[in-house]
Sequence to fold (89 residues):
Amino acid sequence: MSVFRVHFSWKEKEYSLKAESLDMTHPYFVAIKDLILPEKNSLLINPADDEIRKFFGEVRQLMLPFQSVSLIEEYREDPDLKKEKSVSG
Fold:
């Protein structure tokens, strides 16, 4: 299963979201579906992760204008889970 990381700007801030599915067939938008939100960690508080969960936590599909997207990365598996495995192992 591929995991996509989409970097974009919204309200004059830069965001990065992960998703399991993208649809780029629309002529003006990138549709991000099946978002993978950062997990809530009781030990470390990351304000950026809290902001992402607040803004996009209930979103089923996000339509971003092409001009707001700066980079789309595709991974074979979640790159953040890969990092966690290498740190713990």
Notes: The radius of gyration is 14 Å. The chain is about 20% helix and 45% strand. The chain has a mean pLDDT of 87.
